[in-house]
Design goal:
Helices cover 77% and strands 12% of the residues. A hairpin with a 2-residue loop joins strand 1 and strand 2. The longest helix is centred in the C-terminal third of the chain and has 180 residues. The protein has a 5-stranded mixed beta sheet. It is flat and about 165 Å long. The chain is an alpha+beta fold. Among the domains are: 89 residues, Ribosomal protein S16 (S16 Ribosomal Protein, Chain: A), CATH 3.30.1320; 88 residues.
Length: 272
Amino acid sequence: MAVRIRLTRKGRKNRPYYRIVVADQRSPRDGGFIETVGRYCPLTTEPDIIIDEERIEYWLDKGALPSDTVSSLLKQQGVLYKRWMKKKGFPEEKITEEMKKWEVLQIERKKREKLKLEEKEKKKKEKAKQSQEEPVTEKEEKVEEVLKEEIKKEEEAKKAEPEKVEKQEDTKKTEPEKEEKSEEKAAKVEEDKKSEDSEKKEKTEKTVTTKKESEKIDTEKKEKESDQAKDEKSEQKQKKSEEKKSSKTTSETKSDNKKDKSDKKSDKEKKE
């Protein structure tokens, strides 16, 4: 039987806590177990870990294997480090000194981790502030650019006003000439339309005549072909009738010859 040191889940939905348990490898996660050896609650600000070191060492000496999560918890509490020193044969005084040093290092490590988290949060806040301030400055710059462009357009419009007045006078002078040209263009367009209509009519008439002629030619060809077919059929019928007559004459001649032969034989027999 393989024995494992592992976790079993307890607590309500979304609020779990775990027991560190010695159990058979074949039993389910929340099933039967042999002994409880500790407790682990991950939801607190600093995870609450309670471990019975004597019983864990007992089961480890018996050959029980810790799961990955349990082994990480034992490393955090220094149980595996103390067990390693005992196996190497360190005296108890040195083990206590090393464990004190180890605890100090763990406290310093936690402080460094807190500082890193605080720095990250500060950077995030600074980035958020910059992202809120930058769009305001960009908007102000865009507004200034739009105002400058409008001022330039107004100045250009003022400069262009006298030129527009001169152009309007020129257009007033040239208006009657333009009207005459437009009338001439309209007359030309009408003439072109009339010529196009006449050409279209001629083309349609030509196409109609060509279609009629082609239809006549096709009908004549069909009539000739039908006449030729009729002549060929009549000729074939005549040939067949002639062949039948010739076959009849030959059969009659053969029958006459047979009769003559039979008569001659009968005459001979009578003579004899």
